Amino acid sequence: GHEQLLKMMEERMMDVEQKLRLVKRLLQDKVNQLKEQLSKNTRADAMVKDLYVENAQLLKALEATEQRQKSAERRNFLLEEKIANLNRIVRNLAAPEVRS
User: Fold this and answer.
1) pLDDT in tens, 49-64
2) φ, ψ at 30 (rounded to 5°)
3) What's the whole-model pTM score?
4) Separation of alpha carbons 32 and 36, rounded Å
5) How far is 77 from 46, CA to CA, in rounded Å?
6) Which residue of 7, 30, 48, 86 sits 20 to 30 Å from the alpha carbon of 24, by its own alpha carbon?
7) Largest CA distance in the chain
């Protein structure tokens, strides 16, 4: 009876050891997955930061372009006014000649 009890306990210990090895392997796989995910997340975080900086630069460039466009539109408006005034002066100068 004593021998058989020892043999059963030995078998149970081997079974438990086998299960522990399996659990250890599964845990190591999970640790490896988590390390890989952390690495991917770190790279993604760096890319997001780079995109944020790039976006800020693009917004500044867009604002500068909009300011240049508004300035060009103002200059264009002033030029159109000057042209209209010059045309009026030319018409006024030419009008008396036509009458004479």
Assistant:
1) 999 999 999 999 999 9
2) -65, -40
3) 0.56
4) 6
5) 46
6) 7
7) 145
